[in-house]
C-alpha cells in the first residue's frame, strides 16, 4: 500500500501546525500547472477553425456550461467558474493517478473531504446570501403536516449536513478501491510468471475501466455540486 503513502518533501511548521510540502501537495500543484498551461495554450492563436487543443477546451467549457444550465438554470451560470474549476481539477488529479509511479491525490479522504467541505461552505454561503434566513425553509418541505415537523426537520437537517461526507467518501472510496485492485492483480502477474497471462489480461481490462471511473467520478462530483447549488439558488424544496 506504499502507493497511498504521504511523505514530506519540505518540512514546514506554521503556528504549531504541520504545513509541510508533501508528495500530495506536489501533484496538486502539478495538476494546477497542467490545467493553466492547457487552457492558456488553447487560448493562443484562436481561429474560426479550431485546433485540436482548442476544440478540447471548447468542448469542456460547453459540457460544464450545459451541466450548470440543466441543473441550476441560467442563474447558475454566475457560478460557472467555480464548477468548471472543480471538475477540471478533480478530473486531472484522477487521470494523473492513472500514470504508473505517480500519486493518486483523490485516494485520500482528507483531500476529497476538503473539496466536499469547500462545496458545502460555498453552497451554504450562496443560499444565505440570496435568501437570507429564508434559506432555512429548505429544511421544511412543502405539504408536510405541522405535527410531522419535529421529525422531518431534523431528518432534512442531518441529510444536509451529511452532504460533505457522502460527497467525499464516494470519490475517495472509488479511487482507492480501484488502485488497490490494480496493485493486487499486478502482483499476481509478477508472482505467477508465465502463468500470469490471465491476471495480466484482467489488469489491462481493469485499467481501461479505471480510466472510465476516473472520468465518471469527476462528473458525478460535479453533477452533485450543481444539484446542491440548485437548492441554494432556486430554493426547490
Can you describe this structure?
By secondary structure, the chain is mainly alpha-helical. The protein has one domain. 69% of the residues lie in helices and 4% in strands. The chain has seven helices and four strands, in the order ββββααααααα. The strands form two sheets. The protein has a two-stranded antiparallel ribbon with strand order 1-4. Strand 2 and strand 3 form a beta hairpin. The mean pLDDT is 87.
Please provide a brief summary of the model.
With 237 residues, the chain is mostly helical. It has seven helices and four strands.
Strand order of the largest sheet: 1-4
Average pLDDT number: 87
- How large is the count of helical segments? 7
Number of domains: 1
Assembly state: single chain
Helix content: 55-70%
Low-confidence stretches: none
Q: What integer value in Å does the Rg equal?
A: 21 Å
Q: What is the terminal-to-terminal distance? A: 44 Å
Report the sheet-strand fraction. Answer: under 5%
The class by helix and strand makeup works out as mainly alpha
Topology:
Layout (H helix, E strand, L loop, with lengths): L7 E3 L2 E2 L2 E2 L2 E2 H21 L8 H21 L7 H17 L12 H23 L17 H13 L1 H30 L4 H38 L3
Please supply descriptive tags for the structure shown above.
two-stranded antiparallel ribbon; 69% helix; mainly alpha; globular; 7 helices; 237 residues
Amino acid at each position: 500500500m506504499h502507493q497511498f503513502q504521504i511523505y514530506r518533501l519540505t518540512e514546514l511548521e506554521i503556528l504549531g501546525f504541520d504545513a509541510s510540502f508533501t508528495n500530495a501537495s506536489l501533484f496538486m500543484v502539478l495538476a494546477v500547472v497542467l490545467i493553466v498551461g492547457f487552457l492558456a495554450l488553447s487560448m493562443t492563436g484562436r481561429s474560426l477553425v479550431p485546433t485540436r487543443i482548442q476544440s478540447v477546451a471548447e468542448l469542456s467549457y460547453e459540457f460544464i456550461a450545459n451541466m450548470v444550465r440543466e441543473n441550476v438554470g441560467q442563474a447558475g451560470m454566475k457560478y460557472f467558474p467555480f464548477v468548471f474549476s472543480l471538475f477540471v481539477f478533480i478530473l486531472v488529479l484522477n487521470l494523473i493517478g492513472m500514470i504508473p509511479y505517480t500519486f493518486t491525490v483523490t485516494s485520500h479522504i482528507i483531500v476529497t473531504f476538503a473539496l466536499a467541505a469547500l462545496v458545502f461552505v460555498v453552497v451554504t454561503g450562496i443560499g444565505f446570501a440570496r435568501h437570507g434566513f429564508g434559506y432555512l425553509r429548505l429544511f421544511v418541505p412543502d405539504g408536510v403536516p405541522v405535527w410531522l415537523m419535529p421529525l422531518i426537520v431534523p431528518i432534512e437537517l442531518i441529510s444536509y449536513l451529511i452532504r460533505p461526507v457522502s460527497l467525499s467518501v464516494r470519490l475517495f472510496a472509488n479511487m482507492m478501491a480501484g488502485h488497490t485492485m490494480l496493485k493486487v492483480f499486478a502482483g499476481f502477474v509478477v508472482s505467477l510468471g508465465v502463468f500470469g497471462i490471465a491476471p495480466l489480461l484482467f489488469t489491462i481490462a481493469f485499467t481501461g475501466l479505471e480510466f472510465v471511473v476516473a472520468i465518471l467520478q469527476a462528473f458525478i462530483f460535479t453533477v452533485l455540486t450543481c444539484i446542491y447549488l440548485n437548492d441554494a439558488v432556486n430554493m426547490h424544496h
